[in-house]
Specification:
4 domains; elongated; seven-stranded antiparallel sheet; Beta-Lactamase; Alpha-Beta Plaits
C-alpha cells in the first residue's frame, strides 16, 4: 500500500484537490441555482400581479359594453307589437342613443339565425357576427374588420321574452381597449403595472398588434404579427414558442422566462379568450424591475462566489495542465506513430473517410502492405536495425503517394495504404514499383544479404460502402487472413478474387446452417480465465464451434461466423449459446457442483433485435441463474457506432442482473467515449496490446496507460491472447486484473472444461 501511495502520490493529490473543488463548486452552483430559482419565482408572481392590474382596465371596458348591450336588449324586449319593436330599434339607432357611446359603431338584431340591421336589411358578410345569431348568453365575438373601421368587436345579448328578436348585437370600435390612453390618462404618470414593463402589447389572437405601451428601446416591436415578429426574436426554443402560441389562444395568465442580451425577463400573457373578443395582453417585465431587492442580493452573492471560484480555479490549474499533457501524449500515441512519424490505424481511418467523401466520383483501393517474416527480422536484427528498415519503408511509401492518398503503420510490419485505382494492371505495376524500391534495402546477416518479401492484400472500395471505412478495412483483413500461403518475394491478393472463391463455400454454409443447428452440430467450447489478483479461476468465455460430419472435422469460426453475421443467422446462434450455457449451469447446480461465472458474446445483429433483452432476461430467470453470474460481451466496433443505444441496453441488463463487457478494445476504432458514456463492468483488451511493435518501451507505455485509465474508473481489465509466461508477469506488474489465452488454457469442450476446473481448482479448495 505504501509503495502504491508513493508511486501515485501525484494522482492521489490531484484527485483529492478535484474532489474538494468539486464539492465546493457543487455547493456554489446549488446555492446560486436555488437563489436564482427563488428570485425567478418571486419575479413571475409580481409580473403576473402587474399583468392582472393591466387587465382590470380591459375588464372594465368589457363590463361597460356588456351593460350597454344588455340595456338595449331589455329595451327592445318591452315591445308588444311588431311595429313598436321596429320603432324601438330605429329610435336607438337614429335618435343618437347608440351614438352617445363614442365607441359604438353599429347595431343589429337576430331572428331565426338571421342577422338584421335596424332598417330591416339582412347581413351575411361577417361570420363573426353570424356566429352570435343564436347566442344564449351575453358574449363577444373575436375582433374583426367592419367596413371602414379597422377593428371592431361584436357583443350579443339575448333578448328577454321577445318574439321578434332572439338577440341584440352591438359593434364596438377597437379603440375601446386603448391601453396607451389608460397608461397616460389625465396626464398622470403611468401606473406601476405599465411603468414596470419594458413593453405592453394588446394583440388579437392572430398576433396583430392593436395597441402598445413601450418604455424601453431594448426591443424592436415592429408592425408584423407578434408570433412572426417579436416572439420569434425572444424565443429561439421552438417548444417555448409553441407554448406561447397556445397561451395566446387560451384563457388566463401564462408566464415564460427569457433572456435578452444580459438581462432576464418574464413574459406574461393574459388571454381573455375567444368569448371575450379573442384578445390578449402581452407584457415583458425585466426581473430587475419587478423584484429589485432580490436581484441586488443575487448580484452581490454571485460576485462574491465568482471571486472565490476564480481563486480555486487558479489553485487547480497547474494540476489540470499536467493531466492535459499526459492526455495529449496518449492522443499522440493514438494518432501518430512516434517512431515512423506517420499515421496510426485510427488516424488512417479518419483520413480515409475524409478523402473518400471529398472524391465521391473517384475509384480507390485499400492495401495491406505486409513485410514477410517481420517477427523474424525483429528478433534476428534487433530493434535498431528493424526501426531503420521500417523508416525506409515508410519513407518509400510516402514518396510514392499522390494527392488525396494516405498511409499508416498498423504494427508488426504491416502498412495500410489508400491509393487511387483505375484498372488492375497499372495498379499492380505501381505496387510492384514500391516493392522493388523496398527490396533494394540491404539487410545483412552472417549468411549474406537477407531477401525482403512483401505480400499485398487489396480491397477495391465500393461506392455503396464509402460511409463505413471500418467495413472496408474488415474486408481487407479478410483478404489478408484467408489468402493462400505466400512463398515468393512479392504477391498480391484481391478481395474480388477471394470473393469468387468463397462464393461456393458460403452457399454451402448457408444451405446447411439451419439443419446443423437442429442436428446439434454446434458445440460449446469453454476458455477459462485466470484472476491475477485472487490467483483463482475468474470464469470462462463460451465460444461456438461447428463439427461438420460432411468433412468430419470442425470448421474454423472465421469460416462460418462472418457468414452468419451477414445473413443474420448469428442471432439464432447467440440464443442457442445462452440457452445451452444456462442449461449446463442449472444441471451442475442441481448436482451440487461448484460453478464459475461465464461470458457469452453478443453480436451486433443480436443486440439490435427487438426482443434481445427480453429473451436474455427470460432465459436467465427460467434457469434461476443468480445475478452477476453472466457477462455479456459486446464488440468495441458495435459500441463505437451505437453509444446511446448500447447505453440504454446496458442499463436494462444491469437492472436484471447481467454484467456487461467491451470485447476487442483497441482494435483500431477505440474511443475513450465508450468508457465515458457507457457503464461497463469489464474491458477486454485485444491481443494487439501484446504484439511486439518497433519499441518495447513504447509498447509498455501504451499498455500501462490503458490499464491505469480503466483501473482508475473502477472497471475490471482482462487481457486476451496471453500466450507466454513473460506476458503473464508483465501484466501482473502493470496491474491487469484477469488474463485469458493459450498460456493458461485453450478453448475446450464442456466435459474437458469440467475435468479441468475439478482437477486444478475445485479439489484444491
Amino acid at each position: 500500500m505504501i509503495k502504491f501511495i508513493k508511486e501515485h502520490i501525484g494522482e492521489i493529490a490531484f484527485s483529492l484537490i478535484v474532489i474538494i473543488c468539486t464539492c465546493f463548486f457543487v455547493h456554489i452552483i446549488t446555492l446560486g441555482t436555488f437563489l436564482s430559482s427563488t428570485i425567478e419565482d418571486q419575479a413571475i408572481k409580481r409580473a403576473e400581479f402587474y399583468s392582472e392590474e393591466q387587465s382590470q382596465y380591459i375588464e372594465s371596458q368589457f363590463n361597460k359594453m356588456i351593460d350597454e348591450t344588455e340595456y338595449y336588449a331589455r329595451k327592445v324586449s318591452e315591445a308588444d307589437t311588431k311595429e313598436r319593436f321596429s320603432e324601438t330599434v330605429k329610435s336607438i339607432k337614429t335618435t343618437g342613443e347608440l351614438n352617445a357611446n363614442e365607441n359604438a359603431v353599429e347595431m343589429f338584431y337576430s331572428k331565426d339565425g338571421k342577422i338584421i340591421k335596424y332598417d330591416g336589411s339582412f347581413v351575411n358578410d361577417y361570420p363573426e357576427i353570424n356566429e352570435l345569431a343564436e347566442t344564449q348568453t351575453t358574449r363577444f365575438s373575436n375582433m374583426f374588420q367592419y367596413e371602414n373601421n379597422v377593428r371592431v368587436t361584436a357583443v350579443a345579448a339575448k333578448t328577454i321574452k321577445c318574439e321578434y328578436a332572439d338577440a341584440f348585437i352591438v359593434l364596438f370600435d377597437g379603440a375601446s381597449f386603448s391601453i396607451s390612453d389608460f397608461a397616460g390618462k389625465d396626464g398622470n404618470a403611468e401606473p406601476d403595472c405599465f411603468s414596470r414593463a419594458d413593453f405592453t402589447l394588446l394583440v388579437k389572437n392572430d398576433g396583430i398588434i392593436i395597441d402598445r405601451v413601450v418604455n424601453s428601446d431594448r426591443f424592436d416591436i415592429g408592425t408584423t404579427p407578434v408570433g412572426k415578429g417579436i416572439l420569434n426574436k425572444i424565443f429561439t426554443d421552438r417548444n417555448t414558442l409553441d407554448k406561447t402560441a397556445e397561451a395566446l389562444n387560451g384563457k388566463g395568465v401564462a408566464s415564460f422566462i427569457f433572456m435578452n442580451d444580459v438581462d432576464k425577463y418574464v413574459l406574461t400573457i393574459n388571454a381573455f379568450g375567444a368569448d371575450r373578443g379573442g384578445i390578449s395582453l402581452i407584457g415583458a417585465f425585466r426581473i430587475s424591475n419587478v423584484y429589485i431587492e432580490g436581484y441586488n442580493i443575487k448580484e452581490s452573492i454571485w460576485s462574491s462566489l465568482i471571486g472565490t471560484g476564480l481563486l480555486m480555479i487558479v489553485l487547480v490549474a497547474s494540476m489540470i495542465v499536467s493531466r492535459k499533457i499526459k492526455k495529449r501524449e496518449i492522443f499522440r500515441l493514438e494518432m501518430i506513430d512516434p517512431v515512423l512519424n506517420c499515421s496510426t490505424p485510427k488516424k488512417f481511418g479518419k483520413d480515409a473517410h475524409d478523402i473518400l467523401k471529398r472524391n465521391s466520383g473517384t475509384s480507390f483501393a485499400f492495401v495491406s502492405f505486409q513485410i514477410n517474416n517481420f517477427t523474424y527480422i525483429l528478433k534476428k536484427f534487433g530493434d535498431t536495425e528493424t526501426q531503420k528498415f521500417s523508416k525506409f519503408v515508410a519513407a518509400t511509401i510516402r514518396q510514392a503517394l499522390l494527392l488525396e492518398e494516405t498511409f499508416a503503420y498498423g504494427g508488426e510490419g504491416e502498412f495500410l495504404i489508400l491509393l487511387h485505382f483505375k484498372e488492375r494492371q497499372n495498379f499492380t505495376e505501381r505496387l510492384n514499383a514500391i516493392y522493388l524500391r523496398i527490396s533494394s534495402y540491404s539487410v545483412n546477416d552472417a549468411n549474406g544479404k537477407y531477401n525482403i518479401g512483401v505480400y499485398c492484400s487489396v480491397y477495391e472500395a465500393e461506392q455503396s460502402e464509402r460511409a463505413s471505412v471500418r467495413n472496408m478495412l474488415e474486408k481487407l483483413k479478410i483478404v489478408k487472413e484467408t489468402a493462400t500461403v505466400h512463398t515468393g518475394s512479392f504477391s498480391i491478393d484481391f478481395y474480388e478474387d477471394l470473393k469468387r472463391e468463397n462464393y461456393i463455400r458460403k452457399a454451402e454454409i448457408e444451405n446447411r446452417m439451419e439443419s446443423a443447428l437442429e442436428n446439434s452440430e454446434f458445440h460449446l467450447f469453454y476458455q477459462p480465465k485466470y484472476n491475477l489478483k485472487t490467483k483463482n479461476m475468474d470464469g470462462s468465455e463460451i465460444l461456438i464451434r461447428w463439427y461438420d460430419p460432411k468433412i468430419e472435422s470442425y470448421r474454423g469460426p472465421n469460416e462460418f461466423l462472418p457468414v452468419f453475421e451477414e445473413n443474420g443467422f448469428i442471432a439464432n446462434i447467440d440464443k442457442f449459446v445462452l440457452y445451452k450455457a444456462c442449461e449446463n449451469i442449472a444441471d451442475r447446480i442441481a448436482n451440487r457442483k461448484i460453478c464459475y461465472p461465464i461470458s457469452v458474446n453478443v453480436s451486433r445483429v443480436t443486440a439490435t433485435q427487438p426482443d434481445f433483452t427480453d429473451y436474455y432476461i427470460r432465459i436467465k430467470n427460467k434457469f434461476n441463474i443468480k445475478d452477476n453470474f453472466i457477462t455479456l460481451e459486446f464488440t468495441e466496433s458495435f459500441a463505437y457506432e451505437n453509444y446511446q443505444f448500447l447505453s440504454e441496453i446496458v442499463t436494462k441488463l444491469h437492472e436484471n442482473g447481467f454484467l456487461c463487457s467491451i470485447d476487442d478494445f483497441g482494435t483500431g476504432y477505440s474511443s475513450y467515449n465508450i468508457l465515458k458514456t457507457i457503464e461497463m463492468d469489464e474491458i477486454k483488451l485485444d491481443k494487439f496490446f501484446l504484439s511486439k511493435g518497433l519499441s518495447e518501451e513504447r509498447d509498455l507505455v501504451l499498455l500501462k496507460s490503458v490499464i491505469d485509465l480503466v483501473n482508475q474508473m473502477g472497471v475490471k481489465v482482462t487481457q486476451e491472447g496471453v500466450e507466454t509466461r513473460e506476458d503473464l508477469y508483465k501484466l501482473d506488474e502493470l496491474g491487469c486484473d484477469v488474463i485469458q489465452g493459450f498460456y493458461f488454457a485453450k478453448p475446450m469442450k464442456y466435459v474437458d472444461y469440467i475435468e479441468f476446473i475439478d482437477k486444478n481448482f475445485i479439489k484444491k479448495q
